[in-house]
Amino acid sequence: MMANNAESGAIAVSGLYAAYQRQPVLSNISVRFPKGQWTAIVGPNGAGKSTLFHVLTGSMKALRGEVTAFGEPIAKHRRAGRIAYMAQRDAIEWDFPISVWETVMTGRFGHIRHDAWWRRLLPLRFTHPRHARAVTEALDAVDMLAFSHRPIGALSGGQKKRVLLARALAQQADTLLLDEPLAGVDPPSEQLILAVLAKQRSAGRTVIMVTHDMPGARRFVDHVVLINRTIRGEGSPEEMLSDAKLAELAVGAPSES
Length: 257
Hints:
- The protein is of the alpha/beta class.
- Helix content is 35%, strand content 24%.
- A hairpin with a 2-residue loop joins β4 (64-69) and β5.
- α7 runs parallel beside α8 (187-202).
- The radius of gyration is 18 Å and the shape is globular.
């Protein structure tokens, strides 16, 4: 694992402001996410955690501010496939008639775009073998390979989270953005997801996770960012997840998400 060096941020945010329908959500956000480490973003409902991810992934445009990745504009690294995003479960249409395998394969689309033009015209089952290998490895990592042909709508809540994580892993990105990967999962799935993310961090990848799971964050993560519309603190789990810090974070929190 790489050393905790604030100067070697995988992603750096500076002076970021964001709003929905002119209602401010994020105000003057400046923060660095250490390269090769596991960061937890913690805050009350409505604090702007998911909004920050929407800006990082390019699905929302900030009012002003700058976001860079590895010292360059983040959009360049999104296009290059260096940043993978795991959305919350509600962001997926689970009634869509698609299998677990096909869902995880969609995580390879950014790589498939760089294949020879004639390969891009073929059905997914005829894509380059390296894509199938990446999907197999990702499903195996989350213990879902046996469910490859099952419709995604037939999965339990914990299984759905595992599939979303496999889709992110299949992208083989340097940085993983995970929005509430532990929300609504059973204990075995929670332990498996935490173990998978620990392995990714140990392999040198940067993991950035929005979470409400304080026990898991205290046990596994390297770095914690506290947010409630603006940055309220960042540092070690021991310091940031103390009862005093969490109580301070909740002061003035909005009542709705």
